[in-house]
Amino acid sequence: MTQIASSPQQVVARRYRDPESVPPAEWNPVLQVLHEHRSVRRYLPDPIPDAIVRLLVSAAQSAPTSSNLQAWSVIAVREPERKARLAVLAGGQEHITQAPLLLVWTADLARARTLAAGREVPLDGADYLESSFVAFLDAALAAQNAVVAAESLGYGTVYIGAIRNHPEQVSAELGLPAGVFPVVGLVVGRPDPAENTRVKPRLPQAAVLHAETYDPTGQAKPIADYEDRIAEFYAEQDLTHSWIDRVLTRLGSVAALNGRHRLRDQLTAHGFPLK
Ligand SMILES: Cc1cc2nc3c(=O)[nH]c(=O)nc-3n(C[C@H](O)[C@H](O)[C@H](O)COP(=O)(O)O)c2cc1C
């Protein structure tokens, strides 16, 4: 399927690589940006103005946040040497060094702990898994708002989950105190047009959308369809990947977690007791 999609129906069809997809009920520029998302892994070196970084952060802060706790912070890393060190810690991902900006989104319970210490009151609820979950979720929602804002401005992004491969060293590099933990990195920059990124198709809705109650049956056909569609996507890049193989490989062994199997211990050591 060609990547040139002009009508809303073509944009949605491209998201699924489903030529029979129905026209969307409504359309607007926000929906256009959301449906056109693709991760970018080659960047031009053009710097990103401070005013744009602040705009990405105000978009991030516009995300919903559990109980208005705002339990996250973000570190904007631009220094080439620091980015290069973080790239090494994140498995040598070249795009971190190439792009002008790496945003490291953190779960931040330290702010609330400081408030509690200032008033000399307990903060027992912060010790529970629920509170860490809230902070991680808040950070993710904020980061995704920044992604949408960046893409709406023509910037490219790619998340860096590998920032959690070595969270102790990342925390040291960024000066993160106890109670602040790196959740995910986000590379931001002008996409290098030479990369020719494509919209990666997603599972048919029949595999993910359930009516009223979860229905575990009926997944085989949409998954088989998806295998064909994503094989076409990979073949366009001279790759022969299977989605099923990739899922099973990614989740099939401890080794495939690239060090992230230690996350519970690292969190508890860094001010997230996870009771
Ligand atoms: C939490 C998270 C962590 C990710 N970590 C990485 C990463 O470390 N390196 C990378 O190249 N892509 C990373 N990605 C990008 C995914 O591989 C990508 O979103 C997925 O393959 C779908 O492709 P698309 O974003 O182009 O639609 C990450 C995405 C998410 C949501």
UniProtKB/TrEMBL annotation:
Give residue spans, biased composition: Polar residues: 1-10
Q: Which UniProt keywords apply?
A: Flavoprotein, FMN, NADP, Oxidoreductase
Q: Which InterPro entries match?
A: Flavin_OxRdtase_Frp, Nitroreductase, Nitroreductase-like
For region Disordered, the annotated ranges are: 1-21
Query: Gene3D superfamilies of this UniProt entry?
Result: NADH Oxidase (3.40.109.10)
Q: Superkingdom of the source? A: Bacteria
Keyword Metal-binding attributed: no
Q: Which residues form the Nitroreductase domain?
A: 36-190
> Where does the record locate the signal sequence feature?
none
Pfam families from the UniProt entry: Nitroreductase
Any one GO MF annotation of this record: oxidoreductase activity
The UniProt family comment states: Belongs to the flavin oxidoreductase frp family.
- Protein name per the record: NADPH-dependent oxidoreductase
